Inverse folding.
């Protein structure tokens, strides 16, 4: 059995706990939290984060489930000194720096640190690489959604007159259909995505002026096609509590002048954190197995042979899935 | 530069020749054929197959482009004794035997033999593995088409009264839509695919009886929804000379009782052999690089880290694609 620790118990940590139940070859040793352990509502063992070093030889891999802004950059290098780690660090621009810092620690301490797994970065990155490697003459497109965007929801909730709100990012299906037909398109983030807001107004707020404040917000909504629905608090609670997400990675390319090919990878997820956690769990299996083989250092989805993700051996995989 | 040989010059061999022009880090050393070399119409160097052993130290990898029925099982083990090889052996049922025979030779001679690349087996296999590893609670579905099926076309052309014909395999889009909506479906090869035939009748043949002979052919058409269009020879030549193919690998799974996720990988290919060749070329790059690192033995798409497929280094891949 591969023994696993969870660091951090928000949506992602809970998702890892759920997904470990689907893994016949893995078991949860404990959840490690900065909160008071007794305050955590779960049947799994919960420990104070400081005590994690007592588990040095009792866990094959720990999955870092904190935020990418401050938690992971801080905890990653500290924990990689003692444990094999997996994280879903998703600050794309900072990945090279984070990779270097994790690689230094993991090389020096002979651990494996799998960084930036999940679906984007993660499975989407893998498909961007495969699409480009197989069809070097072509264009790659990433579309996100339909999905709940936490950052955009936060921005709307800060607008005066808004009591509560959610925001969905919606891919431009017309553009996807055009790519499917092999047509040339003009792709930018603004044309590729629409934004849909479901918002509850404060009592007495002026809908027209609130709508204008949202739609004119630079970076977040300006220059996007944005639709705003004002709904009741009861409707928001009833219909918008999920955390769906997904998207496409598409490679549209040519092998010769005559022959066009379309490569399209799509995810449609009821729960963004639970699916991200599912990917983390598969890469945690890989991290533990690589470590057993003596591999060390930081790794990404690009560096790991797919067979390491499966609990089945090569012979069965070739017979059943090849 | 990675130096490449092509063995066999049918549709696939021509596809590899075309795709090598898109690979900045690879060069074609020669095409090796059982035919008279001077009879081959190409600008590339062509040699008799028997002379390939003279090129032992002049090629980093050879791509086997013969048929899976007799060519590859015979040539593979012979050539893996001297060269790193890549093939698109596609006889699914025989893959374990072929793997073992190639692994024996490659281990003994310290070469790398990448077997069964292409898109199915190949990219579709990779997605069957990833989908299952990430969503262990779920079902996988493979749909083929819309695509030209050589074997079914051959079967129709053997029917009395048929002068010429092509057959397209068409996936059942209703079933795919149902899976997309997370519905339970009954999947079998018959319900998942429809068959469409475009046929030219011999003069004086009876259309109704020919139609009946086709539709009642066991294994090939019986129990499939089959549509037959009788067309003229001119129409067949004008509209049905391509070799399109493609399909879907779908994983429909749950991480918890509430949360359903859909994983859908789709290919839509103008030319089956040219795209298969594009995949072969990327795996030939991987084979040559693995061999330089001292790796030996038979490998499949499951065993090769994706980064090996790309001409770019890890730092660039992380910065640009992760």
């Amino acid at each position: 059995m591969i023994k696993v620790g969870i660091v951090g118990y928000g949506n992602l940590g809970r998702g890892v706990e759920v997904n470990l139940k689907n893994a016949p070859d893995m078991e949860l040793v404990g959840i490690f939290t900065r909160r008071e352990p007794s305050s955590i509502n779960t049947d799994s063992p919960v420990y104070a984060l400081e005590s994690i070093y007592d588990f040095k030889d009792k866990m094959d891999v720990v999955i870092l489930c904190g935020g990418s802004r401050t938690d992971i950059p801080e905890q990653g290098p500290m924990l990689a000194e003692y444990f094999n780690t997996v994280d879903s660090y998703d600050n794309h621009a900072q990945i090279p720096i984070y990779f270097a810092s994790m690689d230094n620690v993991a090389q020096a301490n002979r651990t494996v640190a799998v960084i930036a797994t999940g679906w984007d970065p993660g499975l989407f990155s893998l498909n961007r690489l495969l699409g480009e490697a197989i069809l070097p003459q072509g264009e790659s497109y990433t579309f996100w959604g339909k999905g709940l965007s936490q950052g955009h929801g936060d921005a709307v909730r800060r607008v005066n007159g808004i009591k509560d709100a959610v925001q969905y990012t919606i891919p431009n299906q017309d553009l996807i259909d055009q790519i499917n037909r092999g047509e040339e398109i003009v792709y930018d983030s603004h044309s590729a995505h629409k934004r849909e807001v479901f918002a509850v107004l404060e009592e007495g707020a002026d809908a027209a002026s609130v709508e204008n404040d949202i739609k004119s917000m630079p970076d977040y909504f300006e220059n996007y096609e944005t639709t705003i629905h004002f709904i009741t608090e009861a409707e928001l609670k009833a219909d918008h509590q999920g955390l769906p997400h997904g998207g496409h990675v598409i490679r549209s390319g040519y092998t010769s002048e005559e022959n066009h090919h379309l490569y399209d990878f799509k995810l449609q997820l009821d729960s963004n954190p639970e699916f991200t956690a599912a990917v983390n769990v598969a890469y945690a299996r890989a991290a533990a197995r690589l470590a057993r083989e003596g591999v060390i250092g930081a790794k990404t989805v690009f560096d790991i042979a797919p067979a390491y993700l499966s609990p089945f051996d090569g012979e069965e995989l070739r017979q059943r899935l090849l």
About this structure: The first strand of chain A starts at residue 2 and ends at 7. The mean pLDDT of chain A is 96. Residues 32 and 51 of chain A are 8 Å apart (CA to CA). The radius of gyration of chain A is 22 Å.
